[in-house]
Amino acid sequence: MMELDELRIFQAVLQEDGITRAAQRLHRVQSNVTTRLRQLEDKLGVALFLREGKRLVPTAAAWRLNDYAQRLLDLAEEARLAMADAAPSGRLRLGAMESTAAARLAPVLADYHARYPAVQLELQTGESRTLTAAVLDGRLDAALASGPLDDDRLEQTVVAVEDIVLVAAAARGAPSLEELADSTLLTFGSGCSYRQRLEAWLRRQGVQPRRIVELGSYHAMLSCVACGMGLALLPQALLDSMPQMAAQVSTHALPDDLSRAPTLLIRRRQTCLPALQALETMLIKRAWAGSGLGDSTND
């Protein structure tokens, strides 16, 4: 019978890409990690990793097991918290889009930290696609990502509805389709949901932008827009949170199917951590208090 400790070791080896870093993460000697991993493989009757010298290559069986392992470990942690104390505590690994972290999260997290000091909150920012994958893989407990998302493995709660605008240099008027085709678009990576929205809309119009430049932060993006380097698609709430930079650019309305985007709190189905439930409640209450967040619904 599989043991939870074996599953934790297996996941560490998978996530750390090898025995050495897994042992360091788990504070174990390498020989113990190797032995327990082989014991798990013997119990399952399959090879989880192919040994290529000192390198371990995950097999298809390893990726299948990872999904079950995460669910079992999550359920065990949920049971432990339910038996120990219903009050929020322990570690909560939260992901958020860069724009949400900058424009929305600071007051919520400050309030959350004051109310629940026993929770060790970890925040990771990234693109919606990356955050969603991290939730599904068990590397994050939950994330704030742009929707809609079509995945039955996820529970989704709308905690904001963002007004999306096209941002250009301050002296520039609303660009035409022809001007868009001749413009440089300033974006995050291909996993950015706002970028995907804009590119899909341009394709429908038969427009191919002359150039796309990927940047790593909204501060850099707004600075480049203000200097006339190109155009960007940003949430209005982000501009509202940065009034000095917003004064250096102009904003332009988008078509209805681009102009509003729900921000979702996503987690794997049947994940019920008290720390996460408390955060969701605070996000929803802030929405209802009229902070600019949208109505809350469950999917």
Q: What characteristic shape results from the CA principal axes?
A: globular
Helix content: 40-55%
Low-confidence stretches: 288-299
Q: Describe the biggest sheet?
A: 7 strands, mixed
Report on this model:
By secondary structure, the protein is of the alpha/beta class. The chain is built from 13 helices and eleven strands. It has helices at residues 4-16, 19-26, 30-44, 60-84, 98-115, 128-137, 177-181, 193-204, 218-226, 236-240, 243-246, 256-259, 274-288; strands spanning 49-52, 55-58, 90-96, 119-125, 142-146, 154-169, 184-187, 211-214, 232-235, 249-252, 260-268. The strands form three sheets. Strands 3, 4, 5, 6, 9, 10 and 11 form a seven-stranded mixed beta sheet that branches. The chain has a two-stranded antiparallel ribbon with strand order 1-2. A hairpin with a 2-residue loop joins strand 1 (49-52) and strand 2. The two termini are 35 Å apart. Mean pLDDT is 85; it is low at 288-299.
